[in-house]
Design goal:
221 residues; mainly alpha
C-alpha cells in the first residue's frame, strides 16, 4: 500500500511540475497521454486536464489522443466525466475539427447526475463557442434548460454561454432575451442575476447601428 501511495505522489508531483513549465509541454504530450491508462482516477484526471491545456496550444500534437480522451464521456467516475469535458472544450477551442466527431456525444453530459459535470459541460461549450459559435445553432434549448438548473453553481455559469454567443452570433440567442430578462430579475442568487444581465448586455450591444448623418454625407461626396 505504501509503495502505491508513493507512486501516486511521484506522478502527482511530476504532473504538477509539468503544469507549471509550458516550455516542455510539447515534448511531454505522449508521456502525459500514457497516464490516461493509469489505474488511479485522480492521476488520469490530472493527466486529462493537462492534456486539455496542452491541446489549446498544441492541438495537432494532441490529435492522436482525442478519441481516448472522449472515451471518458461515458466513464462511471464523476471526476473523469468532468475532466473529459474540460479537455475537449480546450482542444475544441483551438481546433473544432478535432472534437467534431464527439460533439454530439458531449451533450450527454448536459443532463449528468453530477452538478460538477454539468458545470464543466457548460464551461467546455463556452470554450468551443469562442471560435466556432455556429455549431451551437440547434443546441440552445439545452442551455436554456440549464438556466433553470437546481444547482446554484450551474445556474451561475449557464448565462455565460449566452454571453459568449451574444458577443459573436447574437442572432442565435436573441430569442432567449425574455428568459434571460426574467432570470435577471427573479433568480434568488445575486450572481445568477448579474450573469444574466451580462448576457443581455452582450446580446444587445451587437445590434447593428445605422450610420450617422456625417458618415452618410461623406459617402455621398
Amino acid at each position: 500500500m505504501r509503495q502505491s501511495e508513493t507512486g501516486f505522489g511521484k506522478l502527482s508531483r511530476e504532473l504538477g511540475q509539468l503544469t507549471k513549465d509550458k516550455t516542455i509541454w510539447k515534448q511531454n504530450i505522449p508521456y502525459v497521454a500514457s497516464l490516461l491508462k493509469n489505474q488511479s482516477p485522480k492521476i488520469t484526471a490530472k493527466a486529462m486536464w493537462l492534456l486539455g491545456e496542452m491541446g489549446l496550444i498544441y492541438p495537432q500534437e494532441i490529435a492522436p489522443y482525442t478519441k481516448e480522451i472522449a472515451s471518458f464521456i461515458v466513464s462511471e467516475n464523476d471526476l473523469l466525466r468532468e475532466r473529459t469535458a474540460n479537455a475537449l472544450g480546450r482542444i475544441g477551442r483551438a481546433d473544432y475539427k478535432l472534437v467534431a466527431p464527439y460533439f454530439k456525444e458531449l451533450f450527454i453530459l448536459a443532463g449528468d447526475k453530477s452538478s460538477n459535470v454539468r458545470l464543466s459541460f457548460i464551461w467546455a461549450s463556452e470554450n468551443i463557442a469562442t471560435n466556432t459559435p455556429t455549431v451551437y445553432e440547434d443546441c440552445l434549448p439545452i442551455f436554456a434548460e440549464l438556466l433553470n438548473d437546481e444547482n446554484e453553481r450551474v445556474r451561475i455559469e449557464a448565462p455565460e454561454m449566452f454571453r459568449v454567443l451574444g458577443k459573436r452570433t447574437p442572432e442565435l440567442v436573441r430569442p432567449y432575451l425574455e428568459k434571460l430578462e426574467y432570470i435577471a430579475t427573479h433568480d434568488e442568487v445575486s450572481v445568477v442575476r448579474i450573469h444574466a444581465k451580462g448576457a443581455i448586455r452582450a446580446i444587445l450591444s451587437k445590434t447593428i447601428k445605422e450610420p450617422d448623418a456625417k458618415t452618410q454625407n461623406k459617402q455621398v461626396r
